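Input record, target 12 of the design panel.
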């Protein structure tokens, strides 16, 4: 599957395979398949190496009021490390079911351990959501395994549970694979759970697509997004303006705004 010389870690437990491959200074996590789950440039461990991980930071375009973030799925912890380093006012809880992934994130991807601002819990993510309604300002779902996104993470019931886990002004975002033949089905389910307050944003071709859902009505003006993107680019090395363009290119809007309470 890979050049053995590039493999720096492999762990097999109960049929689950976790491997770490390093090529040209970029370390990547694999879960028993050729699909990259997470990547980190070793000399810049808190930077966002993959386009989709930079896309996950686009919740910042919509709000600056996130105080607590809940993540389902850890992987190599790229997004969580970035938030930890660059958004110190956000308290994070991360739920990961696979202890191998947690251990590897700490040992090979420099994910901080025993940090009050980054609480990593070994547990079933769906059960955790069901037991913690109305608890998160931001909910991030990145729950791929070696075979893709598990079916229980893309059902209508699951997306309803995600909506219920958010506080009144909360934002949901999920990483999906653009070439998934069921993508349109998943998108319609998210739209139903969030009362059609949803936006999709491709991060590459074909690549990953980030889908956002908004708990309550939100008035999203294009000019405000561009202004906020310019301000964010002064402190983040992320092409926020490019992501605004992608939002505009892939979602209905009237050139001034995306949707209002009337929708």
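The sequence produced for target 12 reads:
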């Amino acid at each position: 599957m890979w050049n053995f010389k590039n493999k720096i870690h492999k762990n097999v437990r109960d049929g689950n395979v976790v491997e770490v491959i390093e090529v040209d200074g970029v370390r990547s996590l694999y879960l028993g398949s050729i699909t990259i789950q997470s990547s980190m440039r070793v000399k810049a461990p808190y930077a966002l190496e993959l386009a989709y991980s930079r896309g996950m930071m686009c919740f910042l375009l919509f709000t600056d009021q996130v105080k607590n973030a809940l993540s389902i799925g850890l992987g190599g912890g790229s997004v969580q490390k970035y938030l930890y380093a660059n958004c110190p006012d956000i308290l994070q809880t991360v739920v990961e079911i696979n202890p191998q992934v947690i251990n590897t994130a700490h040992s090979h991807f420099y994910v901080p351990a025993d940090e009050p601002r980054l609480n990593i819990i070994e547990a079933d993510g769906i059960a955790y959501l069901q037991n913690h309604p109305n608890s998160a300002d931001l909910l991030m779902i990145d729950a791929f395994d070696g075979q893709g996104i598990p079916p229980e993470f893309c059902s209508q019931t699951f997306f309803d549970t995600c909506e219920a886990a958010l506080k009144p002004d909360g934002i949901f975002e999920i990483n999906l694979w653009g070439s998934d033949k069921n993508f349109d089905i998943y998108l319609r389910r998210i739209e139903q759970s969030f009362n059609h307050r949803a936006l999709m944003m491709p991060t590459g071709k074909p690549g990953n697509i980030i889908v956002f859902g908004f708990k309550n009505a939100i008035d999203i003006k294009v000019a405000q997004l561009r202004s906020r993107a310019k301000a964010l680019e002064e402190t983040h090395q992320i092409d926020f303006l490019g992501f605004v363009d992608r939002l505009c290119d892939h979602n209905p809007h009237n050139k001034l705004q995306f949707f209002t309470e009337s929708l």
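The chain has eight helices and eleven strands.
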